[in-house]
Amino acid sequence: MRTIFRQAIALILLALLPAAATAFFHPKKPSWRSDEVTPAVARSWGDKVLWIDARPLHDYVREHFPSALPLNEDAWNDLLPAVLDAWSPQRVIVVYCSSLSCQTSREVASRLRGEVALPQVFVLTGGWEALQKTLPKNAAQNDSQNDAQKK
The domain spanning residue 61 has which CATH number? Predict the structure, then answer.
């Protein structure tokens, strides 16, 4: 009986190793954080989303999600008023930065929740890299496109 019990424990432990590895390294793993949202889910919210680009301003000017507003730590005081003007209680804020490894979006989201007390602030899983993959070709905007559209 003890041998069966030991073998069962050994099998369970052996099964946990690949399961744990998959949970941490699988490219499509679910988020363990409640404030993260995937590009597909965020895009499904449609016009309800206020997109915030937390990358450096030169990256935003070069290319950004259509309708996204810039907001980063370097120019927080200058850029925050435009974000607050665009925000309404019905809107959900989704903050993105460059990639999955970028923490800037998490810092900006934290400040929006803590300092500005905005509810429903999410961080985009995978950042701009992941969001670009969901866009039709040439759908990303840059400031010269925005200027042409305003004319």
Answer: 3.40.250.10
Sheet holding 121-124, edge to edge: 36-37, 121-124, 92-96, 49-53, 69-70
Count the neighbouring beta carbons within 10 Å of the beta carbon of residue 129.
15
CB 118 within 8 A of CB 93: yes
Q: What is the pTM of this model?
A: 0.72
pLDDT tens, residue by residue, 19-73: 777 766 665 555 555 789 999 999 999 999 999 999 999 999 999 998 999 999 9
- 59-109 tens-digit pLDDT: 999 999 989 999 999 999 999 999 999 999 999 999 999 987 788 999 999
Residue 53 sits in the same domain as residue 20: no
3-state SS, one letter per residue, for 91-126 = CEEEEECCCCCCCHHHHHHHHHHHCCCCCCEEEECC
Strand pairing class (36-37; 121-124): parallel
Q: Which residues contact 82 (CB under 8 A, 6 or more apart)?
A: 69
The total number of structural domains that make up the chain: 2
First-last CA distance in the chain: 82
Domain range for 10: 1-28
